[in-house]
Amino acid sequence: MGQIQLKDVKKSFGAVTVIPPLNLDIEDGEFVVFVGPSGCGKSTLLRLIAGLEDVSDGTLAINGADATDQPPGKRGLAMVFQSYALYPHLTVAENIAFPLRMAGLSRDEQSRRISAAADVLNLTDYLDRRPKQLSGGQRQRVAIGRAIVREPSAFLFDEPLSNLDAALRMGMRLEISELHKRLKTTMIYVTHDQVEAMTMADKIVVLNAGVIEQVGSPLELYDAPCNLFVAKFIGSPMMNIIEGDEAAKLGAAAVGIRPEHLDISTEDGLWQGTVGLSEHLGSDTFLRVHMDGMDNVLTVRAPGKVALRDGDRVYVSPQMSDLHRFDTDGLRMDA
Amino acid sequence: MTLTSTKRLGATYELQRGYRRMIYPAVIAVGIFAIVPLAGMFALAFSDYHLLRGTNWQFGFKNFARLLSDQRLMNSIYVMSILSFFGVATQVIIGTAVAVGLQKIVGRWRFGRILFLVPYAVPHVAVALIWLSLFTPTLSPINAFFDLFGITVPSFLTTQGGAMFAIVMADTWTNFPFAMLIILAALQGISPDLDEAAAIDGATRVKTFFFITLPLLMPALLMVTLFRFIDSLKHFPMIFVITKGGPGRSTQATNFYAYVQTFQNSNVAYGAAIAVTLFLMAALISFYVARLNQRVSQ
Amino acid sequence: MKHLLTTALVASFALAAPFAPTSAQAEEINVVMFGMPYTRGLQKLAGDFEEKTGIKANIDVIGQDVFENRITLSFTGRSGDIDVVHAPVIQVQRWVQANWLKPITAEVDAMPVKGDLMAGPLDAYRIDGEQFAVPFMAATGLMTYREDVLEAAGVGVPQTWAEMLEIAPKVTDGDQSAIALRAVPGQGFNMFIFPMIMRAYGGKFFADYTGGDLTPAINSPETLEALNVYSKLINDHAPQGAGNFNFAEVNAAAQNGQIVFAVEGTGVAAQIVDPEKNQYADVTGLALPPGGPAGRSPAIAVHGLGIPASAQNVAASAKFIEWAVSTETVTKIALSEPFANFTTQPVAENAEVIAKYAAIHPDFLQVQADALNLAIGHYRPLLPEWPSLGAAIGENINAAVNGLITPEEALENAEQEMRDILGQ
């Protein structure tokens, strides 16, 4: 069981409100990712759920019971910190055992759970080491180990992969996803990296300035961003946004089109422009096209290797079915 | 095959030489103002230098042989041990408690940090005078207060235990801020994430302190204890002003006794021998604490 | 090897002392004294001396413990950084024995002021026919008492310590105790006061001090009786905590109205009877300290100025001393500070000085003169070893007063330690 419900939850530090009243339901077993630019309040929201910050107003319920004023240790949640927060004076085994010791579990039960966790996380050979003798990825796994032995009703991850290098990050992403699949426990995961959000989440919560912009599955957000903020934030490379006359011609204050939904041709098309820099990834090529009569530089994805070079004149046309239209408030206009 | 005998200096030679030059002044200062007088003290300890009896400059172990059977020296070491143990323990405990409290406090109360430093800035003689008046029943506001309720507070300075208590109190009052400062600095070095992790792991405040904070403070605690211990061997001003070594001789710590022998009894050589003994004891204990520190910080 | 070591240790002392300014050439002298009314008054007059002689005098007035360390380092290191030094008579024998003071017989003989100085205090500085210092003050023991309390209790001023013990319970009332006496151990603390009682009962330090028999004789029935009286007064008739009182606490107790009697040195007694210092001053009387079967022996402490053996500019130092004890200088200090125990006689004839101290207490100068007449020069023995003897005896006396050991043990220990110190 790991159902979390936030009702009109508000957080202010003195006179500054960082999270205006906010409502959110997290279902049992869901993998929820809070994503947003830095300073958007996603970490604060996680800390409110963990009990590390006081809720200024509103209520927080865990598994249906009011937990607004419950101390963190009583909420049955486990948290993995960005810094891992391993106890430097304790060995790996002692670190993992710490929450069990605090809960007063018997020694036998402790060691049973430690070895089970170490098994899952490939830490068996490192149990006697201290944190500073471990690599970043190993430390991350110890932190996770310390979380899973508690058998919590939900895991909270606070940007857990941001201190790892790219290769390790990818590996850990998979490990966490697999862990979720196996444990089927609710996980709330905070990140500023939309790739992590897209690849791991069942449900993404996009936050901006303390406000939830949109909640939905990764594909919902990708295919139907409800406003310009979400449109720009989700997807890599970023969605092309065109404003002004060209947008008006298409019946909107602004239109958005993802790079893969632009067709490029040397013969004809809707818009004309000049090829600038190109990024060749092998499988794809991203072309930067400077458009005539527009301020924008459009990013166009062309499959495979493309023979176009810097300075070539090209035509670019959007695939109309995948065009996103936004009104003057930046909200999605549904056709 | 190499015929050139030029020593390889290495790429960092210039840099290293620069750093070495930075410590020259300290080396010279320590050399002149510590090593030379220390050597002088050792030499005196083996001599027969006496201001009144005349001096033949004969050197030997006579002073040290006498030390072994000196009842007053043994008593002074006992007094010093009691004063140092209770003084240092109280200072470290109170200093740590205040530091932990101050570190968690936010807002206006942070001024406490400056407030608590005040006692440390007061000269020892002034501190001693303040506490002397507090422990003199006819002058003490404490006694005056309890008198209002008809309670008679015993006079501390006329019993050995009371006089030692008074000295420990005065010493603690003025020196706990030192412990507090060091511990506060050490606390800043502990990631606040650890406290939060422990809170989530279900540890209470008290358990967090004993299982997480305290072990991590161990190296700093040992260092503070060592510094305060060495300093506590120099209890002189407190004793001189508050009790004059009394009642009787019951608060004459070892360095007070060295003063008595040197300045009062004119027996400079014997006083130096006591000082040397004190120095060696301090060095030995410091060495062990330093080793312990090394083990703990690993 | 021996020379090397000697050099090293002398160097170690010399380095610990502040570097000596080259005072001689610049006609500048350094004077080191410890704090008391006269020395503080003299410090303020340093400008007068420079005006008169063109010699600049740097007068340092420091705490007694600091003083002790400073001069020992300076003297043993022969650093010559002190030109004139505060010389308590009780220390001078020791300093002379250690060759720390310059004999200044010729210089003193040449001073016109010599004839104006009290003979007793001046002679106290004469050792083996040589003069080693010049006195500026002679403090004696005096007793202050609360006239109003004695009157209310219908008792007179006690003439003996036995009478004091008898009267004490009659004047005790609630928070008000009968008496306070210095008790803290030290040759200048309890050993300034206790010998008054000891000598009143016929106790003595040595078998025959004046006859030259320095066999310790403190463990006698007479001294034991005196110690019991002293101990009884402090434990049964003095305020709480009196077992650790020094002059400051005695003074405070008197000024707070917590005690009826105080037996103290002139400096403290003068403050107790001074209306500007003490609200009870106008009901406080002044008398000689009590006596006993063997008579009355007020304490005496002479302080003076001497020239360290290592001082370089003896002429300038002597000029300073002459100026410092001159009638003019001493009169100024007697008027500006609470300083009545001067040893320059003509000052006592100055009308302003007489008026000032009469205003403080009409009997003041008279009682002080009487006490000085009764005082014996060797009230505390004039021996090089006295500072250590006094400390050892004082510590044992204090231990007995505070019940750490019995009075019998205290005297036995004291006598044994005296023998040890004297190498007998």
Q: How would you describe this protein?
A:
The complex is a heterotrimer of chains A (335), B (298) and C (424). Chain A has nine helices and 18 strands. With 335 residues, chain A is an alpha+beta fold. Chain A is globular and about 75 Å long. Chain A starts with a strand and ends in a 9-residue tail after the last strand. Chain B has 298 residues and is mainly alpha-helical. Chain B has one domain (72-297): MetI-like fold (Orthogonal Bundle). Chain B has 13 helices and no strands. In chain B, helix 3 (71-104) crosses helix 12, helix 8 crosses helix 10 (205-232) and helix 10 (205-232) runs antiparallel to helix 13. With 424 residues, chain C is an alpha/beta fold. Helix content of chain C is 48%, strand content 16%. Chain C is built from 20 helices and twelve strands. In chain C, a hairpin with a 2-residue loop joins strand 4 (126-127) and strand 5 (130-131). In chain C, helix 13 (247-255) runs parallel beside helix 14 and helix 19 runs antiparallel to helix 20. The longest helix of chain C has 16 residues, at 221-236. Chain C is globular. Chains B and C meet through helix 1 and helix 12 of B and helix 1, helix 5, helix 13 and helix 19 of C.
The helix/strand class of chain C is: alpha/beta
Taking the alpha carbons of the first and last residues of chain B, their distance comes to 45 Å
**Which two chains share the most extensive interface?**
B-C, 48 and 53 residues
CATH superfamily of chain B: MetI-like
Instruction: Please name the CATH architecture of chain B.
Output: Orthogonal Bundle
Element string of chain B (H = helix, E = strand): HHHHHHHHHHHHH
The total of helices of chain B stands at 13
Q: Tell the overall outline of chain B.
A: flat
CATH topology of chain B: MetI-like fold
Low-confidence sequence ranges of chain B: none
The count of strands of chain C amounts to 12
Uncertain regions spanning at least 5 consecutive residues of chain C: 1-25
Proportion of strand residues of chain B? under 5%
CATH C-level label of chain B:
Mainly Alpha
Number of domains of chain B: 1
Radius of gyration of chain C: 22 Å
Largest sheet of chain C: 8 strands, mixed
Shape of chain C: globular
Alpha-carbon distance between the two ends of chain C = 33 Å
Radius of gyration of chain B: 25 Å
Kindly report the average pLDDT value of chain B: 86
